[in-house]
Design a protein that fits this description.
alpha+beta, 12 strands, 50% helix
Length: 408
């Protein structure tokens, strides 16, 4: 039996002769519990928002994207594409050409990105097609010059689906036109009809017009050229190995980015904010745990006779120190576990039942605050609380040796 731990447990749960000791101990437990609860809830909220943002970009970013680092476009031969198909068990591959264009509908104008897409296999579903809420995909029309458009872009241009009067005019600079020639048009123009409107992510919705790849290549006079390739893999695929294979296949003149690297800045900001808040709350918890020092010191003052008796009976100094070290550690653990249980319970209730709503006014992506509890966060918080408790409890224990045991 650990005698020091046994005595410390008896001291903690036995009634004290002074009400001040009970009050300070209760405040210590409450302070640790509230700090721990705050850490659990805040980190769970950040996890929820991170998952929400990832889901928003899930259909915008592919598993892997390949772009040239030496030029805007590149040409992929039939043999190269055949080799790519056999490189992995792909769900689908998207060949893409993008160009910034000027859109015009009647008197309304908007800068946007014209995106041409071709799929392999051809019967695959384009990821953005799952988010068409009005109309249908341009691929449903055998003839060319049909496109789908983002919701925000359609709103700004006042475009409707299948509206013959709402012809979408697309302009790009005519690179072959001479600057001194008045007969040559400075812009190339192509007209599209809107077959569908999609909504997936606000920034994407306000920027993209998507249509057939060959139509875009013909319009821009960039036959066979691509600006990027998008790859989608099975859930069981080894992402790291697949990225290495693609990088080896394309060489140093191309960059291969996974889903997170495509939005690297966004994910770095999310992680930076999360850990900044974690350290701030941990510092607040450290300040709150200083009440443990007061609690242990008060218990030491009350148990001076016990300390003298133990010292007279030959109890080692380290054992007496351990009694009050365990005392502070038990206060920390009791408050930390209480905070963890309450924090996890509140977070799980919000995660599964959505108790706190975002409100009925306005348009929100989700109805309630996104929360997600991660086991690794709970373990990290518990380790942090215990570490702070150990650090704080050392202070009164050293004071105990200098002021009480040696004087006895």
């Amino acid at each position: 039996m650990n005698i020091a731990l046994y005595i410390a447990r008896r001291y903690l749960f036995s009634s004290k002769s002074k009400n001040a000791v009970n009050s300070i101990t209760a405040i210590s437990v409450l302070g640790v519990a509230v700090g721990t609860l705050s850490l659990v809830v805040v980190l769970s909220v950040f996890n929820g928002f991170e998952t929400l943002i990832k889901s928003m970009y899930q259909d915008v970013n592919s598993d892997f994207e390949v772009r040239s680092t030496t030029s805007k476009g590149f040409v992929l031969s039939a043999d190269d594409f055949y080799s790519l198909q056999s490189l992995n068990n792909w769900l689908r591959i998207e060949k893409i050409y993008e160009e910034k264009v000027l859109l015009q509908v009647a008197e309304r104008e908007q800068i946007a990105i014209l995106k041409g897409v071709s799929l392999w296999p051809s019967d695959s579903i384009l990821s953005i097609e799952n988010h068409i809420f009005k109309g249908q995909s341009f691929r449903e029309f055998p003839e060319q010059h049909w496109a789908i458009i983002g919701q925000s872009l359609a709103y700004n241009l006042s475009v409707s689906v299948n509206g013959i009067q709402d012809v979408l005019k697309v302009f790009v600079p005519n690179q072959n036109a001479s600057s001194n020639s008045l007969s040559e048009h400075p812009f190339n123009e192509r007209q599209f009809l809107v077959s569908g409107i999609f909504s997936v992510q606000s920034e994407y919705d306000a920027s993209y017009v998507i249509t057939d790849l060959e139509t875009v290549q013909s319009f821009l006079e960039k036959q066979s050229h691509l600006t990027s390739l998008a790859f989608y893999v099975n859930e069981t695929a080894d992402l790291g190995e697949t990225q290495e294979k693609l990088a080896a296949f394309f060489g140093t003149d191309f960059e291969v980015k996974n889903r997170f690297q495509q939005q690297e800045f966004l994910y770095k900001v999310l992680q930076t904010e999360k850990w900044a808040i974690f350290f701030i709350l941990s510092f607040i918890l450290l300040i709150a745990t200083f009440t443990i020092v007061a609690s242990v010191v008060m218990i030491v003052l009350e148990k001076r006779k016990d300390i003298s008796s133990l010292w007279a009976m030959g109890t080692p100094v380290k054992t007496i120190q351990k009694i009050f070290f365990y005392e502070g550690l038990l206060i920390t653990l009791f408050g930390g576990c209480l905070g963890l249980v309450l924090g996890v319970a509140l977070s799980l209730a919000q995660q599964y039942y959505g108790i706190i709503q975002l409100g009925t006014q306005g348009s929100f992506i989700v109805n309630s605050y996104p929360v997600e509890v991660h086991l690794q966060d709970v373990i990290l918080i518990l380790a942090t609380v215990v570490s702070i408790g150990i650090l704080i409890t050392i202070i009164p224990v050293r004071l105990l040796k200098k002021k009480f045991i040696q004087d006895s």
